[in-house]
Design a protein that fits this description.
heterodimer, A: about 800 residues, mainly alpha, ABC transporter involved in vitamin B12 uptake, BtuC, two-stranded antiparallel ribbon, 38 helices, 6 strands, about 5% strand, elongated, disordered C terminus, B: about 325 residues, about 0% strand
Chain lengths: ~800, ~325
Amino acid sequence: MKVGMMVCGMLLVAMSFFMLYSYQPEIMAFLVMGTGIFMLMHSKKERDLTPVLKKQATQTILASLLCIVLGLLVGYIVLLIINPEGAWSALSTIISNFKTFSKADGQTKNLANTVVKTVPLLLCGLSVLFAYKVGMFNIGAAGQYVAGAGIALFLAIGLGVGFPTAEQAAVQLFGAPDDVARVVAPMIVEQEANDGEGSFTAAYNALQKKYDAANEGKKKKEMTYPTARELNELSQAVEAVAETEYGKILQSLDKTGSLTPAEIVTLYGDQDYSRRETFGTLFSRESADVTVEELVEKYGSLSVKNSVSVTDVLNANNKIASGLGLSGKLTEPQISGGFPDKEEKNPEETIKWLKDLLPIADEALAAKEPKDIIGVERNKFVIAGSGMTFAASVQRVADLVGGIENVTVEQIKAIYSDLETIETVKLADAINEIAEEHGGLEKLTIGQLINGMGIQTGVSGGWVLCVLGAIIAGALLGALSGLLKAFRNVNEVISGIMLNWITLYLINMLLASCMDQKMNETWSLKKFFPNALLPTAGVDGLFHGQSEQTTIAIPIAILVAVLIWYLLTKTKKGYELRATGLNKDAAKYAGMKGRTNIITTMAIAGALAGLGAALFYLTDNTKWSAGQATVPSMGFNGIAAAFLGGLHPIGAIFSSFFIQHITDGGSFMEKIYPAEIASLISSVIIYMCAFVLFIRQTMNKSFSDKDARKHAKLVSETKGILHGELQEDFDQSVASAVSAEIEKSAANWAKKAPVAPEPKRISEPEAESDVEADLLRQAKALELEWGEEDEEESGKDKKKKKKDKNRKEKKGGSDE
Amino acid sequence: MILLLQYMAIYTAVLMLVALGGCFSEHSGVINIGLEGIMVFGALGGALVMRYLPDGTSAVFVVLTCVLAAMAAGLLYSLLLAVAAVNFKADQTLVGTAMNLLGTAAATVLVKAINQAANASDVSSTIAYGAKRKAFLIFSDLQVNEESSEFMKALKTSEFSWLHVIAVILLIVSFVLLYRTRFGLRMRSCGEHPQASASVGINVFKMRYAGVLISGALGGLGGLTYITAAVSEWKFENGVAGFGFLALAVMIFGAWKPFRIALAALIFGVFRSLSNVYKGFDFLKNLMPGAVYNMLPYIISLVVLIIFSKNSAAPKAEGIPYEQGMR
């Protein structure tokens, strides 16, 4: 022990010097050094550390540390093989992770990043740990993680819980007067850019330049923007207002002050805003006998957008085509193959084209009037020109058909019925309309206004809902696994695996509507769904404000770990669960409800994994990518974290941080080394952890061997002492028993021997000495005894007396 | 149609091989969750051999060497589990999980290092084996010209591979080995009641080693079958995309019996391949949305499990480390 401790101590001190040299956190280095010195000191004092080492906690910690060192060693060897030169620095990069950054800010930021990613790993680890303590291997943690993430994101994005609330939206939308520029102008500019240069753009650019000069060098909060009046002047030049999706408005805004509806109307009465309608709905308001001229007059300024697919257009065509008697439907390949370019073709060419496409069209075509057919397929050309006003598009049809008098309303209706168009309405009118619905302008609330304008709003503090949703989703999934195991004996490993995949595909389906098509992942929460983000509540102060992703998730996760520890070790339910895990049958016979416990455990494990997912995805650190093909590995890494922490909730905190630490460190290595070295190291560590039991067994065996030897020594010593003292008594009792026997047999023999003539006993022989007297007395007693025996002789008594004698002898003999 | 059959053959062969491997291991008493890692390593072995074989080698030679290499790689990797579980009495589920993680990581590191050594700017984790893959295809050198039927033309480009045939052969061999030979009987007894086997004189350690090593070989071959299916290069960063776990499920689904495992793999293969080919059939496309096809194999397996798991019987002594002299 002494030598071992000395060696260990020296090794630790040496390691601490290495650590100081290679960018390790100084605290760790000094800790290691301290431990080494402590060991050295104690080795000299020869204090026995075995009682400490026998404790399960110390053993587990030591075993885990050993696993970590072995894993790092294997990693170092692999690094050496790949490229010997940079191997040591690569390894130290992995170990030091954020310390490789020289500036304190950079260090804190990366530390924050690591901590943020530790949260889901910790919670998944707790999930696996909890189930394992109850005897089940929760491989379904990955699926529960996916479910939690999916439901949280769906609630935030899909159901819009994360949208700004009505009040926030109003504030963002209308804001303080100075902020209108940031709302309306950019959209208008964008539209103008699509349609070509307009006077508005030029005017706006001039205005922008003026304010840019004024804002130079100022911080964001101090900047000024064009006033509403200036913008009103600008808006006179606008002919059509761009399509606006209010989501887009909200996207580009910061929060500002608030306005009442009356103020809004006063200020922005002349602003235009757009509401989307289809031509179908527009036309449905028209009477049956409206003429084309009236239509043009009314809708002339509306622009037609080709937001319809070719198939839709041609389906509309097909309706008309069938109306014309042209049977046969254009198939998809025909459409994509034969779609004409935008150039105008003369009617004959177009007919030929149609002829090629529709094999049976010949006769039908020959029988019909060219203009109808042209009207049918010409609209393709019309629609293909984007941004044309309605009037212009009608005019174009008219040109081709030979004059506007030839265009029929039915044709227009049929052609444009499923096209979307944009209707420009004055904001004041819109607000008044909404106010009428709700009983007057005075009674109108911001919320009703926003909702009436069709802006989707969210819930303040919506993240709570999202987190709760994720917990419930995870719990349900876990409970499903538990149910299947409890009632149908389905192995939880296989049901977990199946549910992993089923959940993955379900969530992909669910989140399909929440995807940003450009980036192929879910929308950024920070930009568009601020109410779904977890609040930072001062936790980012711990990290010097370096990262806004450090949220209350971190204290919540630690709190949950402590709660789980408390639940498992200090409550009755926890005891029951652990008992079920150790011996299911014994627990059942003791009255613990096995089935309920299994389902409860899996539900809690699932809830933990779901919570982990929510706490991670709602910080907007990572987004859920579209078409995620495989189950995220977080659920499986949780297994690693659980076991490395010695299956103890508090240990899981440290182990999950460590695993994330080296994983992130791996990404900072030089590029010659693949970043997967870090996961190689952590998997080797986990592999070694499986040997922990063996290590602990050997440790315990060596201790128990020593103990056994000590104990045996003690026993033999005690025996020897006792043996020595009692030996005399033993000898004496044996001697007396033997002498008694001798006397008895002598007496017997005397009786049986031929009777010598009785010696005349005149008198009792006189005892010449005490000893003789004793002997005589004894002899007399024996005679009497013998005589008594003779008289009372009967089988039983004899045997009984003999038995008693034997027992007495034995007793005497075994007295030690 | 050929496409459907081809995908069916691929998925069934892969799942069957790996599940058979797991079956051997579990029959001898060692839970083998590390099938995914074994698959990756076997695939790695086979891929490396395929890549470094010179171009003109005969097809038979290519097939033989690759199969042997894959089996050897899987076998060596499963030694990790064997030593840990049998000699050191480690926790078998944990070792399996560690092997899974280790397999993908180690394979990626290895491939990236090899790629970089060959060409300093190549940092991908892909191994391209190109034309040699044709050696596996059965029908690649079918004589086909313009007049042949559609069927023949489709067959020529199909992906039916000799590995699928080998899989079927191995299925029969496994059944015979497990249930008709003395070796199989002894192995099974080690999984049911090792103490009883030890009392009769069977070396439990050897049997368990045999079980795990066989599972390694079969798993490695399954990995090779997976990565040579329909692609001419493989990105090892992806591992085997969760197929090892599926094989584990198929094994439990098949109640640890070879022919039932084959049936389970077939059911799974049919539905999984449906999710690949449903776009080509109109009536299937309109029947259900695409995502449901993806989920179908798992849902069906779950339903079957719910119905048939009541009496499922794993080998009794699996997962319990064997100690000599224990009751």
